[in-house]
């Protein structure tokens, strides 16, 4: 059974339909990417899942029950906008958030110290939030979202403010939570993180679902039209290939895109091998970044033509 299910959910603000009949489901124990350009409706969708906003129509189910005040206790939410009290001390604040989620003061303090140690933040307990850097604040807010061991963890742009080392640390923690069977809803603009972490995705644009499925299935669905080439010989032949675009090149390597749908990779290989010595000819999967741009651009063009 899906841990989270949205069924034809819509939300309007005045004349603007921010979310328009969105449906998707999140299976337990998986990392699910909620993607879309700015203004697509992602944050509104998350706020309805967390019961901050109510949908105008449709249903949102968490573990088989409608989302409501009781269900909120089973959700951990890291918002994109920081929600920390700037003058409170770190440990005091984490204990406060833990108690809001049903922990005793002792349980909250023990969990907070354990998580501060895991995120390499011991020694921060008595610091005020206003004394912390953006990255340090992000760590504290992450801890606040996981203290009570939620069934569903929602992370909205979780890497904001983190340097590369702490980005890698947080990635390790997210994967540990998944290994423990936690379900994670992950929203970000950084497609390389989606490819690294997510099992499934849904892409929302203009308040509607335009793409959904497992990452593997979606990437397999798109045409594999990019070639990575390593070779010896004069590279002038690359400029004379009909229906082929040179994306990048160096002295003995290039990336090519086949623009002609009728062109087969084996035909291109034969053409190149007639003039070059080929060391590597690899058909590349499209990146999620390419798929994202192509899908959103196509919907925009269709909207203009309507």
Give the SSE map.
Blueprint: E1 4-13, E2 16-26, E3 31-35, H1 42-49, E4 57-62, E5 65-66, H2 69-72, E6 75-78, H3 90-100, H4 105-118, H5 134-146, E7 152-156, H6 164-179, E8 183-187, H7 191-197, E9 200-205, E10 208-214, H8 215-221, E11 226-232, E12 244-249, E13 253-258, H9 265-273, E14 277-284, H10 288-305
Parallel strand pairs: 3-8, 3-9, 6-7, 7-8
Antiparallel strand pairs: 1-2, 1-4, 4-5, 9-10, 11-13, 11-14, 12-13
Task: Describe what you observe in this structure.
This protein is about 35% helix and about 30% strand. It has helices at about 40-50, 70, 90-100, 105-120, 135-145, 165-180, 190-195, 215-220, 265-275, 290-305; strands spanning about 5-15, 15-25, 30-35, 55-60, 65, 75-80, 150-155, 185, 200-205, 210-215, 225-230, 245-250, 255-260, 275-285. Helix 6 links the parallel strand 7 (about 150-155) and strand 8. Helix 3 packs across helix 4. The chain is globular.
Beta strand count? 14
Q: Name the beta content range.
A: 25-35%
Would you identify the regions where 5 or more consecutive residues have pLDDT less than 50?
none
Give the ordered list of helices and strands. EEEHEEHEHHHEHEHEEHEEEHEH
Radius of gyration: 24 Å
What CATH calls the topology of the largest domain is Rossmann fold
Helix % is: 25-40%
Total number of distinct structural domains? 2
Tally the helices. 10
Shape designation: globular
In this structure, how is the largest beta sheet organized? Answer: 6 strands, mixed
Q: Summarize model confidence as the mean pLDDT.
A: 92
Shape-level CATH architecture of the largest domain: 3-Layer(aba) Sandwich
Q: How do the strands of the widest beta sheet line up side by side?
A: 6-7-8-3-9-10
CATH class of the largest domain: Alpha Beta
Return the structural class: alpha/beta
CATH superfamily of the largest domain: P-loop containing nucleotide triphosphate hydrolases
């Amino acid at each position: 059974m899906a841990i989270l299910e949205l069924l034809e959910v819509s939300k309007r603000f005045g004349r603007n339909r921010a979310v328009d009949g969105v449906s998707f489901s999140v299976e337990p124990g998986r990392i699910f990417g909620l993607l879309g350009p700015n203004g697509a409706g992602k944050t509104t969708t998350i706020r309805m899942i967390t019961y901050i906003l109510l949908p105008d129509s449709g249903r949102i189910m968490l573990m088989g029950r409608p989302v409501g005040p009781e269900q909120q206790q089973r959700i951990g939410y890291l918002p994109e906008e920081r929600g920390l009290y700037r003058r409170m001390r770190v440990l005091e604040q984490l204990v406060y958030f833990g108690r809001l989620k049903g922990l005793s003061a002792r349980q909250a303090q023990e969990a907070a110290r354990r998580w501060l140690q895991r995120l390499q933040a011991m020694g921060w307990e008595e610091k005020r939030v206003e004394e912390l850097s953006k990255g340090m604040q992000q760590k504290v807010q992450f801890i606040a979202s996981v203290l009570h061991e939620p069934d569903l963890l929602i992370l909205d742009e979780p890497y904001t403010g983190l340097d590369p080392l702490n980005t890698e640390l947080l990635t390790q923690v997210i994967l540990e939570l998944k290994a423990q069977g936690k379900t994670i809803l992950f929203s970000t603009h950084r497609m390389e993180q989606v490819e690294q972490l997510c099992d499934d995705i849904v892409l929302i644009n203009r308040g509607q679902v335009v793409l959904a499925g497992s990452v593997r299935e979606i990437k397999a669905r798109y045409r594999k039209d990019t070639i990575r080439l390593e070779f010896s010989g004069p590279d002038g032949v690359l400029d004379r290939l009909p229906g082929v675009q040179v994306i990048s090149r160096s002295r003995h390597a290039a990336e090519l895109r086949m623009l002609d749908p009728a062109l087969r990779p084996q035909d291109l290989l034969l053409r190149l091998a007639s003039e070059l010595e080929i060391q590597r000819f690899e058909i590349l999967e499209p990146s999620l970044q390419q798929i994202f741009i192509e899908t959103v651009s196509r919907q925009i063009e269709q909207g203009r033509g309507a």
